[in-house]
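Progress narrative, Year 2. Work on Class F sortase from Streptomyces edwardsiae advanced from sequence curation to structure prediction during this period.
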Amino acid sequence: MTPLSRRAFAAAATAALLTGCGGGHGATRSTAGHPTGTTPSARSSAKPARALGRSVPVGLEIPAIGVDTPVIRLGLAPDRTVEVPPITADDRAGWYRHSPTPGQTGPSVILGHVTVGAHGDGVFRHLARLRRGDTITARLENGTAAVFAVGEVRTVAKADFPTEAVYGAVDRPELRLITCGGPRSGDEYRDNVIVFAALTSASP
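Result:
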């Protein structure tokens, strides 16, 4: 990532990434710096694959929970928090464009809603059901399919969002999928569900 991208990536490391999961508004500003070191969160028994070149994700498939969705690009909102996908009937996942693309070294971040207001269920409504070893395939703009294996699924209070585990430097290609979860109050959820996965293979 460029220095600008790294700053934007750190600026969006927030415990309230998806406060709008139920159709609410906004996200909480974060002042967290960019952590360093290697995070073991996505470590799994799967053999890691060689890193890929940069190519933007255009689709995401998660067979275990029936997800097959286009992927849109997300940036930063005017208040410098990460954008979230729009609340629409045709809900889609969104890749945070200041993170690595799926398959590059580092944590690539993809966000999705668990619910989309009056439209009902969101694209990541069953994210918490994923288990270690389940596969996630990111379809890239260059035609490559980057395949990841789930290493861990966490449900954490938004107030205790594990910034370093999600955004910290890693020495191999990893993926983070994030949505809301836990108890709901009105349009808001108390927790975040975070999936940690590592690249295992890639094919044209």
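The chain has a mean pLDDT of 82. The chain has one domain: 3-203.
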